[in-house]
Every structure is written in structure tokens, then in C-alpha cells.
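Example for tutorial group B:
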């Protein structure tokens, strides 16, 4: 079975030598993985932590209801 090919998020080259550098989460349906080649992977900034996003949204909701 051949290895899957993906595009590097940084250099846009198609490669089968991949690293998952981030996961994109969605509210409806499955999310997806973001890939980079081994050379670019250390240079790709990390994405936001989903739990931090949820906590920030909860803080905003509380601030609105506390008024």
C-alpha cells in the first residue's frame, strides 16, 4: 500500500514524509489535520489550544451575564 501524499503547510511541496503539526476542530462534522514536511515542521507555529478557546468563550459569556 502506498504512503499517503499531503502538502506541507509551509513550503507547499507534496510529500509522503509528513508530520502532523496541528489539528483543526469543527463544531459540525470531522476536523482535519495540518501537515508539514520534516524540514518545515519545527518552523510551523503551533495553533491555538482548543481548551483555551473554550475557556475564553466561557469567560466572555460570564462577563456578558454579570452586567
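The residue assignment follows.
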Amino acid at each position: 500500500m502506498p504512503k499517503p501524499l499531503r502538502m506541507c503547510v509551509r513550503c507547499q511541496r507534496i510529500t509522503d514524509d509528513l508530520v502532523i503539526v496541528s489539528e483543526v476542530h469543527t463544531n459540525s462534522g470531522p476536523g482535519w489535520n495540518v501537515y508539514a514536511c520534516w524540514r518545515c515542521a519545527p518552523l510551523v507555529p503551533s495553533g491555538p489550544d482548543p481548551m483555551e478557546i473554550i475557556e475564553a468563550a466561557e469567560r466572555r459569556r460570564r462577563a456578558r451575564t454579570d452586567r
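The chain has one domain: 6-65. Compare this with the pattern of hydrophobic and polar residues in the output above.
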